[in-house]
Amino acid sequence: MNDKRLLIVDDLPALGDVVSRVAGNLGYDVRVTTHADDFKRDFESFNPTTIVLDIVMPDVDGIELIDWLIERNCEAQVLVASAFNPDYARMAETLGSAKGLEISFIEKPFRVAELRESLS
Predict the structure, then answer these.
(1) pTM for the model
(2) Using CA atoms, how far apart are residues 82 and 106, in angstroms rounded to an integer?
(3) Domains along the chain?
């Protein structure tokens, strides 16, 4: 199994495709999902080393997924992505970090260079 595994959850399939291509070029094995239930299933079976998590999705709040990851003692680096109010994403970053989850934030729309740097 590759030591660089990226799990992406974003309700916009096009964004997942872009992140997947960039990550694939950096040597990641990648899985992309648009729904929280699929994300949870894939998290358990794929054991990601890195997660790109959209903080605002129609079927789930990203904060709920962060809590879910904390409950599972997630050791992956979590990259919170959002076009919503950056304060909300930073709140997620603060919550996760306080509970031992390694979280960073990238604001949408982001440049490919920014994403590449965040994944490197």
Answers:
(1) 0.93
(2) 7
(3) 5-119 (3.40.50.2300)
